[in-house]
From TrEMBL, chains A, B, C:
It comes from Chrysemys picta bellii. It is a multi-pass membrane protein. The gene is RHBG. Belongs to the ammonium transporter (TC 2.A.49) family. Rh subfamily. This is Rh family B glycoprotein. The lineage of its organism: Eukaryota, Metazoa, Chordata, Craniata, Vertebrata. It comes from the Eukaryota. GO terms for biological process: ammonium homeostasis; transepithelial ammonium transport. Gene3D superfamilies: Ammonium transporter AmtB like domains. InterPro entries: Ammonium/urea_transptr (IPR029020), NH4_transpt_AmtB-like_dom (IPR024041), RhesusRHD (IPR002229). GO terms for molecular function: ammonium channel activity; ankyrin binding; carbon dioxide transmembrane transporter activity. GO terms for cellular component: basolateral plasma membrane; spectrin-associated cytoskeleton. The keyword Membrane applies. It is found in: Cell membrane. Keywords: Ammonia transport, Cell membrane, Glycoprotein, Membrane, Transmembrane, Transmembrane helix, Transport.
Amino acid sequence: MSGHATNLRLKLPAICFLLQLFTIILFAVFVRYDRETSARLWHEELSHHNKSNRDNDFYFRYPSFQDVHTMIFIGFGFLMTFLKRYGFGSVAFNFLIAAFAIQWSTLIQGFFHSFHDGKIHIGIESMINADFCSGAVLISFGAVLGKTSPIQLLLMALFEVTLFGINEFVLLSVVGAKDAGGSMTIHTFGAYFGLMVSRVLYRPQLDKSRQREGSVYHSDLFAMIGTIYLWLFWPSFNSAITAHGDDQQRTVMNTYFSLAASTLATFATSALVNGEGKLDMVHIQNAALAGGVVVGTSGEMMLTPFGAMIAGFLAGLVSTLGFKFLTPILDSRLKIQDTCGVHNLHGMPGVLGALLGALVAALATQDVYGDGMADVFPLIADGSRTATYQGTCQFFALLITLGFAVVGGSLVGATLKIRSLGSPPDTQCFEDQIYWEVNP
Amino acid sequence: MSGHATNLRLKLPAICFLLQLFTIILFAVFVRYDRETSARLWHEELSHHNKSNRDNDFYFRYPSFQDVHTMIFIGFGFLMTFLKRYGFGSVAFNFLIAAFAIQWSTLIQGFFHSFHDGKIHIGIESMINADFCSGAVLISFGAVLGKTSPIQLLLMALFEVTLFGINEFVLLSVVGAKDAGGSMTIHTFGAYFGLMVSRVLYRPQLDKSRQREGSVYHSDLFAMIGTIYLWLFWPSFNSAITAHGDDQQRTVMNTYFSLAASTLATFATSALVNGEGKLDMVHIQNAALAGGVVVGTSGEMMLTPFGAMIAGFLAGLVSTLGFKFLTPILDSRLKIQDTCGVHNLHGMPGVLGALLGALVAALATQDVYGDGMADVFPLIADGSRTATYQGTCQFFALLITLGFAVVGGSLVGATLKIRSLGSPPDTQCFEDQIYWEVNP
Amino acid sequence: MSGHATNLRLKLPAICFLLQLFTIILFAVFVRYDRETSARLWHEELSHHNKSNRDNDFYFRYPSFQDVHTMIFIGFGFLMTFLKRYGFGSVAFNFLIAAFAIQWSTLIQGFFHSFHDGKIHIGIESMINADFCSGAVLISFGAVLGKTSPIQLLLMALFEVTLFGINEFVLLSVVGAKDAGGSMTIHTFGAYFGLMVSRVLYRPQLDKSRQREGSVYHSDLFAMIGTIYLWLFWPSFNSAITAHGDDQQRTVMNTYFSLAASTLATFATSALVNGEGKLDMVHIQNAALAGGVVVGTSGEMMLTPFGAMIAGFLAGLVSTLGFKFLTPILDSRLKIQDTCGVHNLHGMPGVLGALLGALVAALATQDVYGDGMADVFPLIADGSRTATYQGTCQFFALLITLGFAVVGGSLVGATLKIRSLGSPPDTQCFEDQIYWEVNP
């Protein structure tokens, strides 16, 4: 038991206060309003550049931002409440680590993407990106759900956000890959990072907690709140930072149809793989969402509606099969205990989405994209790349992401093995009472 | 029992795969991005027609679309979770059939409304209309909730979407009626279609399942999630496809006040008709929403705020009285078993809304509408109709809708009687365990 | 028992019908569509003032309105469902009184702010303000939750909305204070008004109902739905009526960071003050939101992101300490029974927010605000005030608000003591069965 001092009375306040104060100091030194958020600067734009308030990016992106925000805090938070005795930890630790991650990623992403004259300039787009980055952390959280203390989770967020920022910088700014909806940067990275953390933190005695690693009737309904919100707003997620105009609308539409097709594939496959033809809520809650993941990279491209539907259909199929056949093998053979099955929802569909993105990029033609090529593939439009080369870059971006995730997750997992971080004993996993006052 | 082989192992996958693959093929052949969604075409608009990205319809309609989308999947889905043992079926079959219906209705409505040069052109407005159409199917689902298999529901969606498209085409394009919020096309059609299906599928032995046809404490709270979201976003529903500018704003405001008034009428009537003066959650969950239905046709018109409030007040009153007095009679006398009381929430308020629309249209004057007449009543504005004639057309549109709904619902109900579609036996209605893996 | 005739069969219908009919009559006499909602008037704007439909305020404010609307009906409603046996009353009485308050406040605020030529002109901004005003009533509802009948609540709404309108008029139009997110007008006013009502309605025998004044496992999860939605959409709340452009975006960003910091402070403090280092859901559900309240006044100002984070951090800290140490003292010493702890979430953070607003206003300089000064501080921009004087006015606005709240709450509380308003006996508080049909 000495390795599992789960009393957080001093440790949790200490780390929360430290992280928050450190973040505030860095914000004070580095972070400033950008040209659209500052009273003085925006009014200079209005008077000197003939703009109107309608041109403020706020009106192009705020509705999408709020949908993404809902996905992060309601979607991910409630999706994980399916466990019978871990509802508090699911929704509230999700809340805690996302609230930290959005601050920390504003700094990390700011250093890489909007650092000018020694200052980070922030606005609505940095808020969306911060929420995106916290999404990757929450995916990793899904893999270790119920087996980690909030202190471990905050440290994981600290390191993972940093690595996310580096990987994203390499992909978007060095390799020149496109990944607006994050099939690679968010889903593939978050899933394999989390799976490696879970691998390193392998619990051989977890069977002693298995009786709590399931749902009760109402916990499955709470989880459906998360599922449906993720499903509804995924079109906003994939389109939130694409170019204005046709790009945002096309991304929304591709995602919408991909999700619809993955839903039918999930119901079909769920009944098919069950001995009695019954549906399984775990599949519906998760695999129906794979259609959003799989068009994360290609959603802004001229994928065509039926292309999006084929992609979604395959993603739902693969994801459901993963839950049925792969998750048990990951556990028994590879010692990867994946509480929420993030490998099925984010891992495989993320990899598929990256490959699909590479393919669709390689097929891009001037005839199909017209002058819109500059928005989707600026490096093809300005003649510095061919479509084939863009596709190749997309493929290498996937490999880089997998590398960062696997190496990073292993190192961070090792760090989290430090005793005194308050992780629960094997007999007390998936149990709120360790960290929460729970009424009977 | 032979008529009730509820094992779906092969049947459900077969129908899901078939419907999805058939849809994908039709999309591949017929469906294309429209001028606002295609990279090439939108950039032609930008350069040749002096447009800016701000003019893309996406920015006028996407927030409303997402509200409608939330109503369809969260609103309808959770509203039906009030049953104590049918929460999975409510929210998840809702999910399944809506995910199919939005695809199928994109095709059907596309053939009628945006078929040019052999192709269907789609964008944000077709997505809203597809969600609208699935709303009608979900209303019908409410009438047969707990008594039908997912296979029956998918077939119902297939046929109902098709009939919806025909009826809508006749109303809007042939008769020239206005019905932006769908008092007729969605609510009246969906309700009476579903009631006829339920009539044809009458179960004389349903008493054997009555002990499950009620709520428990927490299932009523889940249902309130659905109720409140429907109530909140109904202004977006009614305004989602009205003309830009004053029309959208006016429709929102009329719906907002109508709903507020129907809420007070519902609480008042619920206490009044209860022997002990206690409130009934069934009334609050449903009748408070009647204010949204009743201004579905007239919401875009110059109804005036107090006119909207009177309409909402009457709708809340009538709807609550319907739950108390009419639903038992429908069951005992007319053999219509209406699980969710859709006759009270969508049927009667829909008919009232159609009549109100006819009245407000007949009263339209140039003095009140000014140049805005062209947006609301284009056929009056261009001189091809008088206001009185428009009102008459509105009235006939209601009769046509009732005809399509009653005849169509009867035929489809008869089709769904086919054995081997997996419907539950009378003793096992309102029970998730037939179709779902349920943890104790 | 004679003082507690809780049968509402005639009383509730009577007051609902009366209030609704009275409101409809006043709307018929006084309320008209404004220039952006009327078909004729908006088309005059289009043709005579060279406007386009994009300029309609609807497109600047409707997404924010719907977020605020969700906070009022889902956020407040579900936040209060934490009680084990008062879920119906929480979400449904919230629904009832807000549905009335938005109508009544349209009239009251209309008389003070948009009364021209004998008519009140309404549009999207009046809808946001009506929702804001109902927010104040719902805060007061939190203080008396479980101890009042719906009749008392409707009467409280009637009087409180009226006083809210007067206080708001004095602050904004007489004193010239700024308070876009309502730290004073909504939170401080609503909290102290409700606390005074609760003080006057003090129940010495409330211990007989204490066993129901707590949560069960799933009721805490329902409450988290309310919490997370309030947290998500608070940026929309504070920015909903600020000026277009940089103001809306800046307010959103300040609120976002303030909330993130208050969340970490809440988790830290919750673990710190608990004997065993366990977290308390009551704190997470409430104190994490204090960051939204505390920047209600200053959010639109050039607060800087790190300034917002410091404010949020302190608010979360103070609020959690309030739940732990102050609420018991209020009850035992001051005889204020504050069911939801509104003093901790809205009272103290509201006062802090008012003081912060005064400070930030006093520090305003032309160098920082540039031409944006006219949007934030019009009276400084036009030279009629110094920044110091603006700060002083902000401070007096707080005192005025406290005066209105304390005196108003006392008087209204005394009115609500009238017998025959159906309040529950001390033994039956926090119990749905008094007013609701409840299935076992």
